[in-house]
């Protein structure tokens, strides 16, 4: 402890896991602002922040399952199911917006609960379980909609998705509140600490009296809930409930937490670092759009960043073990 107190501000900053992300973000902002006059315009900042909103919640959804050493491959498929369910409730059945949103969140949490229960009851890894349920959720989605979107959504709901104050979209409020709630949950509550304990050392957690299976079910349920929240924001953002919502979420959901330092074996995640990783990803995507780079290169770059992050995390673990 005394050694940490003797460190300079710069040394303490560099010791943080998110310091490299913060430096990369600053470099990216300065570079793009220098190369493109359109980058710092109000409209472009608004576009980036709108993209940030949905991606952040999707990243949090995956982050919670990574915390217990699990993976949720159904995050996008479940999001798509919630999206068309909410759109159908509002267009076909005339549900009020708050009721449709609550039902959508319940469907997301229910899908996550199914993932968690199947994982602990069968003893099969969540990777396989969620791969199977992803197919089931997608099948239900396409069976209900026949790939036809819901367009006639309430004007107030669509207005929330497109509204803004200067460069700040209204959509930014829910992810900010979710990030604060998650940070508090993980740091200050017993279930949050149990979640990290199970991911860090499942056997030791069980010996300490922590219900391992219950914590895994909780992680998947919360993951499904957040996937549902992301889907609802995506519907508001697009102004329609598209069956294709969520199809491109999977890579992004892993990219941000892993770049943010999440341990694949579980036990270590960071809300702040994951949020910064999302900021970096959005900046990269926007920079490529402004540079008119083929969008397929974005996928390549995200894959490269994931590999680099995994390699760096492994190197840190080896050095820590050697110390």
TrEMBL record:
Keywords: Cell inner membrane, Cell membrane, Membrane, Transmembrane, Transmembrane helix, Transport. The chain crosses the membrane at residues 20-40, 47-67, 73-90, 97-118, 124-144, 165-187, 215-239, 251-284, 296-315. Its main location: membrane. It is found in: Cell membrane. The keyword Heme does not apply. InterPro entries: ABC_transp_permease (IPR001851). It is a multi-pass membrane protein. The keyword Membrane applies. Pfam families: BPD_transp_2. Part of the ABC transporter complex LsrABCD involved in autoinducer 2 (AI-2) import. Probably responsible for the translocation of the substrate across the membrane. The complex is composed of two ATP-binding proteins (LsrA), two transmembrane proteins (LsrC and LsrD) and a solute-binding protein (LsrB). PANTHER family: ABC TRANSPORTER PERMEASE PROTEIN YPHD-RELATED-RELATED (PTHR32196), AUTOINDUCER 2 IMPORT SYSTEM PERMEASE PROTEIN LSRD (PTHR32196:SF71). This is Autoinducer 2 import system permease protein LsrD. It comes from Kaistia terrae.
């Amino acid at each position: 402890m005394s050694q940490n107190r003797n460190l300079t501000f710069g040394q303490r900053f560099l010791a943080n896991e998110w310091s490299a992300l913060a430096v990369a973000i600053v470099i990216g902002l300065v570079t793009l602002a220098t190369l493109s006059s359109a980058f710092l315009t109000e409209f472009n900042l608004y576009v980036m922040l709108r993209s940030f909103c949905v991606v952040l919640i999707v990243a949090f959804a995956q982050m919670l399952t990574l915390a217990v050493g699990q993976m949720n491959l159904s995050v996008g498929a479940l999001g798509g199911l919630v999206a068309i369910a909410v759109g159908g409730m509002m267009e076909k059945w005339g549900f009020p917006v708050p009721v449709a949103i609550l039902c959508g969140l319940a469907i997301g949490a229910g899908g996550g609960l199914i993932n968690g229960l199947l994982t602990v009851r069968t003893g099969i890894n969540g990777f396989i379980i969620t791969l199977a349920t992803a197919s089931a959720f997608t099948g239900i989605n396409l069976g209900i909609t026949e790939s036809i979107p819901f367009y006639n959504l309430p004007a107030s709901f669509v207005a929330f998705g497109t509204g803004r104050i200067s460069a700040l979209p209204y959509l930014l409020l829910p992810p900010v509140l979710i990030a604060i709630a998650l940070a508090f949950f993980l740091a200050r509550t017993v279930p949050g600490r149990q979640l990290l304990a199970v991911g860090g050392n499942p056997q030791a957690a069980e010996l300490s009296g922590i219900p391992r299976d219950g914590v895994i079910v909780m992680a998947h349920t919360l993951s499904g809930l957040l996937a549902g929240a992301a889907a609802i924001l995506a519907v508001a953002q697009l102004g329609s409930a598209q069956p294709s919502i969520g199809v491109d979420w999977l890579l992004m959901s892993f990219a941000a937490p892993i770049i943010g330092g999440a341990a694949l074996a579980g036990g270590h995640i960071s809300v702040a670092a994951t949020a910064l990783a999302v900021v970096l990803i959005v900046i990269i995507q926007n920079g490529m759009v402004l540079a008119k780079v083929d969008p397929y290169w974005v996928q390549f770059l995200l894959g490269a960043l994931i590999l680099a992050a995994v390699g760096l995390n492994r190197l840190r673990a080896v050095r820590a073990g050697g110390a």
